[in-house]
């Protein structure tokens, strides 16, 4: 069942948090709302759930307008960052909660609970209380509780944030697997870009209550529409430059970076006299001075961190501008601080975006 959001506005008192937001989420897909703290992700998710009223606009589930329906009539499953389990109930009773509210009981209910707990790998822990479970197990119970009612939409608010790195990866795998298996339309909130890239069919990057960009993980990463998106999704060098002349349309342009001339891609028309130069550290090549190919800029290594499979360099290119560069492969740590180098830029992967 797809979700459609039309021109949504949400206010707290007279503080407008979501403004004119429209979005279509494909049936059965995994959609992630990604953005920094305070951008409105949780507010948007809770409005989709029905816990917060929309002040303007509409929300549709599978074509039906649910904007004025209370949360318990929207047939959603919800998973929270802090698990929100009932501490005085057993795992079985926690999972039973939504089923009982729907009037289910007896053998059918027990079978469904058993199956849901099996699916999250906790079939043997039904009689325990939440206090006797690890964080990862608690979140699996919360997931079983959300899915056992066969909701039409699954909403998750930072469900992995309270888990340590190893558990986060495990529960991440469980969520992805169950979501695909059940084919349930899912909206997932996170501020963790790696989580978003790894799990999602599509991502919406939010900025101040609006969607700055919506796309597949690779579109968001490779074809960022703004320096804000590029910087938020992975690392990026972002430097303000004079907008190149003659870029009313799209294409490649000649730009100047710290006095060096080079070519870069302008994916969308620029407005205004300034623009942002955007290059990811792994897209910049590094060679000893004089040995670089075309489209290069001379610089001096000022910092180096050996990280095993890769090396991070800081290279100064003049006018006080430094760039982060990342190298992989054989001899990736061969440039020493103080070395004169050439930085090579692929004109297709070096972007000039509106500032
Ligand atoms: N109940 C409330 N009353 C008033 N303002 C609120 C309320 N809840 C959130 N806000 C404000 O609305 C804005 C968006 O908050 P929201 O929690 O949706 O952001 P978020 O992107 O989910 O952030 P985080 O990642 O920190 O949870 C923030 O400026 C926040 O201070």
From TrEMBL:
Domain ABC transporter: residue ranges: 3-233
SUPFAM superfamilies tied to this protein: MOP-like (SSF50331), P-loop containing nucleoside triphosphate hydrolases (SSF52540)
Keywords: ATP-binding, Nucleotide-binding, Transport
Pfam families: ABC_tran, TOBE_2
Record-level Gene Ontology MF annotations: ATP binding
SMART domains for this protein: AAA (SM00382)
Domain of life: Bacteria
Positions of transmembrane segments: none
Presence of the UniProt keyword Magnesium in the record: no
Family under the similarity heading: Belongs to the ABC transporter superfamily.
Record protein name field: ABC transporter ATP-binding protein
Originating species: Shinella yambaruensis
